[in-house]
Design a protein that fits this description.
alpha+beta, 2 domains, eight-stranded antiparallel β-sheet, seven-stranded mixed β-sheet
Amino acid sequence: MSEPLLRALARMRGLLLDEQVLVRAVASGRQRSERPRWRRAELRYVDLKAGRQLQVVTYDETQAFTANHPPGVPARDAVDALLDEPFGSWHVDTTTETHQLRVTKKLEAVVHTAPRSEDPAVDRSHDRAKPRLLPEDHPALRALGISDETGRVKQSRQAKYRQVEEFLRLLDQSVTAAIESGTLRAPTLEDPLRVVDLGCGNAYLTFAAQAFLSGRDIPVHLTGVDTKPQSLAHGEAVAARLGVDATFVQGGIADAVVDPAPEVVLALHACDTATDDALARAVGWDARLVLAAPCCHHDIAAQLRRAPTPAPYASLTRDGILRERLADTLTDAFRASLLRLHGYRVDVVEFVGSEHTPRNTLLRALRTRADPKPQAQAEYDDLTATWRVTPRLAELLA
């Protein structure tokens, strides 16, 4: 039975502010015609050197933000700010009960409360192990050689495992948001989500994405594309071992035949202009979601060496290392601008810490078909004219 939303939220507020009772609370979803600032929020009390505090972890589309609030006014203000957000649901666990609040289309609340069958183990520690999207003993990780036969990640593959995990977090956020917004259709077993991994290599990302999305009850068909015949043979062997729905195509990113066209395009560390090939194919396929982590950026760097540096930027190109870093930044800025001009909403984010790989920038593009902002073309033209370069992606899209 529904009840006034404000009354139900006031009841949840009392639980959230009770440091002796609250175990954990999660806010997520959105109310009709409104979207909260955060995609998700988690609350619990932790014991720090300064005493017990309310820890609030909020998530946007790319990363998490953690803040600790002392009891009293700071904690009340933090809770009230979250209760004011138009979240569609609240899940609140206490030491004695579990409360599930859902906001209806009429902006009323339906609350289901159930007693706990046993006393929970309340964790007040500040540092908790980050939950793994693919556990170390997952069959896909063993088949790919990331984990050994005992189900432990090999020491030599720790960095690769971290990259896969962080990429999956972004994939999870992006696919979920795209389906909720209607940009991506809801896939079915008869018509699974079509995903292509361009330049798949040993197919770490291909099989990790397939395993993770399938585990989230998102039916998916993965296609891996690579020029090397050994990559094709390796992918087919792993697919047969795992018994998964995956296809491998030998060919270049620019000309490989993928039919039907994919809805999601992945490209992890495609070298130099191969990333441009991947982005151009995504635009040509009218892909709804693109996740691309570029590798080296030689093309623009070479053009910068040949072209005179515009005033007053000589100090940015005088030293080789600064010129190379500038080329990296300009290349990805051009790519993001061109995708926006072709009807995509683009974020440029860090997908893994620089201590794991220096190539940790990721372009995430969501197909909106919205007309670009009036100044977008002028900004792009000014940037290319100032530096006297021609991005490879512009040539491919032309």
